[in-house]
Here is the input.
Amino acid sequence: MSSTEQGTSSAAPAEPTTAPESAAAPEVPESFYYVHGKDKVVHKVSAGALQHSALIHGMISNLGYTEEQAKANPFPFENIDGDILQMVVDWCNQHKGKPTPPEDTNLPKQKEKLFDLVLAVNYLEIKELLTYCCKQVAMMVKGKSPEEIREIWMIPTDAEDEAAEKEAKKRAGKEAAGETAAAAGDAK
Amino acid sequence: MTGHRFPFHHLPDDLYSKVLEIMDHYDIILYSFVSKKAYSMAKTLRLPISSVKILMTANPEIILQIGVTSISFRLIMRTDRIPMASLDYLPVRVRVVKGGVQREIAQLIISNQGMTIGEWIKHLCSISDKDTLYEARFYTGIIKCDIQSHPNTFPKLRIIYISCPRGAIHEDDILTAHNVLRAFLPDAQNVTLHDVPLPKDLSFQHIGMANLKVLKIDPPSILVFDDLSTWNVENCTIHLNQMPLRELNRFFKLWMKGSNPRLKKLRVSVWDTEIIPDCNVLLKGLKAKAEYVYEESKKYTIKNCRRIRAEIKIDTSDDSADFVLTVLN
Here is the structure.
């Protein structure tokens, strides 16, 4: 599990407590990095756990930070809610250095957060977790009727889709007209 | 239903597609009925539906085959809608059954989705992959609608089965069979006609001359057997109630002279007969070589003018006889 602490990305965070070592701890001392979400709560995560995220792995692979530098420069993910980032970090820690099973029972249970979680995991490029999340989304409508699918997945009716499309076209038309008028004004 | 809701269509396109790709085909097909956008997304997945079978019965059924899984949509009709005079009738409800190898996996009753019989057929046939094999079975005593007036409802059918009720022949049955054959014969490869009375302008001769791979008929009227030599069918099965030994002998002789070059197999079955076929009549003048001769089973080989060999197998039982000509090379 990761440890968390209130802080800001600009100020150096206070010393977070270390995550428990896995049973088969490597002999070489493990390096740690720090991430925070919208709520600025800093999470200390091992490089091994972060390997699940192609985005973060790419960011840190050539950084060569010392522990101090990493502490002073947590990765900011301002577009991810703190509790969502916490779920992601927990999952990465639980699956650190382990092959991911075909069915994951450690998925976050809060289904109401699933939409934000899917977007966050997609952004962080955590392939296996994304697959599990998408499976969970798919399972929501398993064996359901079209009416139930519409309700669970909040799918608009054709009439609502058409109205939204008309509205979008109208808005785009207005914006285009506004831009043309502005350009004409500039020309004068 | 769960209390949790998920704004699925707010997902970015790549995630949206990823979820659909993970879903069971059964669920994707049900999802395709949710909206036009959902239908269009389901189509882009190009589901590997190997065949679609449409049964035009009192409660029409559309069966999709995906690997070993079949998904059946049975359209439950109002009883006063039988016989079916139009494809514009609305089903009362639809029973969806997902089946595996010899067992039912899931079952669901859904609403008619505001769609007519024709729209159900069109929807379920259009979400398939291009290589899908389409088959339809028409039962003329139940179907009275003019299929030709719905040209875009059915896909190009490769397999057609038409069955007419036994007994008195009704003009309606002739008309329905005629309409179905006119509409689908040009694209069909496999045709089965069960007790189908044909109009004067569309005889078995016309059907036999179409480039069919398989033709199975049990004609209600006497078949002009000599016409067979002009047929263009690869695999032909004919069920009769009279034994056409002389006609078959004539046909074999014509084949030996080079007729029916596309023919690979001809099977003539005779039911409800107590007459034991006389092989001397059947094989007269064929110079047939006996492979084996038992009381109830005999096999001979013959050769045509192009040195192509064929075997003639004759099986008889107490009340039936079966003649099979198989071209060997």
In short: Chain A has two domains: 3-146, 157-187. The radius of gyration of chain A is 22 Å.
